[in-house]
Amino acid sequence: MPVPDDEMSQVLMTRTPIPVPTHFSQAEQSFSHKKRGRALCYSLPPRPPVKNIPPVSRIFPNKQRSWSQPRPQSVSFQSPQHKQPISRLYDHSKEETFYKQCFQTLCKLGRGSFGEVYKVRSREDGCVYAVKRSVSPFRGESDRLRKLQEVRKHERVGEHPNCLRLVRAWEEKRVLYLQTELCSSSLQQYSEERGEPLPAQEVWSITCDLLRGLKHLHDRNLLHLDIKPANVFISYTGVYKLGDFGLVVELDGAEGSAEAQEGDPRYMAPELLDGVFTKAADVFSLGMTLLEVACNMELPKGGEGWQQLRQGHLPTEFTSELPPDFLKVLSGMLEPDYRCRANVDWLLSLPAIQRAQRWRRVTLTTRGIVTKILYIFQVRAGSASSSGQWVTEEGMDLWPLVCIGD
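^ Membrane-associated tyrosine- and threonine-specific cdc2-inhibitory kinase, sequence as received from the core. Prediction below:
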């Protein structure tokens, strides 16, 4: 459990500084507020390169590549057979891809190291979704299998109200596509657009939702290893969800943590530098996420500030206005010693968290009722004024609530 406050100062004075990796560039010597107006994906660092064999085309240039099927093939590890994605709209005789035939691209939501995410409307059911498409085509069979692991990990996560829902995945012309539910924004985008610390009640809501999502992962022996505001999504009904499961580690899998990769250095737990991968690392990353949005604080990538945060020091110039109960939660999450760090079950048992969860349930229930009432009025107004079109253009803002849900 967290070290008591009266002993914390003595512990910090005797603790050996944690070495900072040499690849952590742009070391910061002090803490500062976050800047406004930056792009959605400005903070996505390139993931470590993965060793791979040369493309098959270089070794056997005239050989038929089994991993380069021109027609779409569904990807699912729950049903081992790869079949053509089911859609009444897809015509394999056309040159257009399955994506272009079955989806209308509305806008580009962001771009990361390995994928681009688009907001799309399904031509089949009229609902809006997010589709993530790999940036680079498969370079070979091993590269293909590595990229397909994200689908297997997402399927292993399963469905939970606080985890981003996977609708389906498919591959076509050496490119992987993942279709997921659509959320209104990421926590990073939302907090940076505000440009100020989030209200205390809102931070409690984020804490409750993400702890529930993290408990779902940990109960399944899964580590997320990349929790940060850019990977937290806000649904159209205000529910916070964990997403981007590309770095998930299965503790009960054959490989365990042997192939684990750490995520963004600003949120990573100190023990990951020593190759220690446990559930406590996710708790630390969640604590850093909450510290950032609750204080509108720019987290350091390295240097003295990076060291201080991993030695239990919370800068009072940022945290002095935080509620005492929340500071207790935060200190438990950011305990430097992973063996003493608070776990998800202990955090959820705290009276402050339980009070916040009760208030959270009331808020979401009320919001859901109001949303449904507003949607009914929008639909009726659209039906009366559009001569057969049952929803107005203004009413499209509420359309995702019905199609996606939580």
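The radius of gyration is 23 Å.
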